[in-house]
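Backbones bend. We report:
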Amino acid sequence: MRVLTVVGARPQFIKAAPVSHALRTAGHTEFLVHTGQHYDQKMSRIFFDEMRIPAPDINLDVGSGSHATQTALMLSKLELVMQQNRPDCVLVYGDTNSTLAGALAAAKLQLRLAHVEAGLRSFNRQMPEEHNRVLADHCSDLLFCPTPTAVANLAREGILTGVNLVGDTMFDAVLHFAKIANETSGILNQLKLSPGAFLLATIHRAYNTDEPEILSGILEAFIELNDTVVFPVHPRTRQKINQLGNRIAGRLSRSQVRMIEPVGYLDMLMLERNARLILTDSGGMQKEAFFFAVPCVTLRPETEWTETVAAGWNIIAGVSREGIRRAVEETTRPIDPPKQIFGDGNAARKIVTQLADPRS
């Protein structure tokens, strides 16, 4: 079986690593396409190195741009690559512009399309990611769902064929790489951090970074927590923070907020595992917090990972300064450990089995 895999952003590298390994272990051929959506060394190359993902067979070098420009350029280039390779299946992950472009290109060429992490819904159509995931699902022949909730979401939209409940490949990755991170990462010593003595924060979504008032409010909330907040700053977020001016920069410099450069996957796992609390607008980090039994405050008005909220390990804070502070103050560690709702750690193997099954 010849599979063409499309990735382009940090979360997709993590999701794809276990599946890529399972494909190659089973003797299948994978043609790996990197769209170049994330191109910074600390957001791309380091993940391939640390997770031992084979080097991409081709990098489309699309880079940054508006959603329309970026998606159109990817679509055009991916169509040509797919025509040249004629794979048995095209594999896309998650909900980025790379996902949408890969799904549309495969559908237009009538190639068998599989979507990993299918069925997620935030029900917020202001999120570009929501449009991407819905469209990818409705284009797909095989839909690999991480949770029963995702299966139910697809059923409500009339998608019943080709749906497979397999678990979450990010859970596969955490189970494997957390052990390696524990043995090799020196990030806690490097930053002079003690386990459980700091908060970990990330912000990257456009609706949190592109509105100066919202971004300022989130940063003010971090400052007013009066706690050590380790904040690996996405390159785009840093640019937006710099545009806020000297007042917020001065307040940040005098606070306990420690703005650091983006870190690799293994270092991030160690920071997540040892944080007292995680504050994030990342869907992946909400799950990773759950995997590590670390309480999470989500800096969004909603989440597609409703299971983590229902289990008591995730609080939806919204983006207001007061809402964030209140959520952190009210967050307590649940008595019961997180339940195994994201599979058994064998999602990648199940995906490859289904891909290779001629009946599916």
About this structure: The first strand starts at residue 2 and ends at 7.
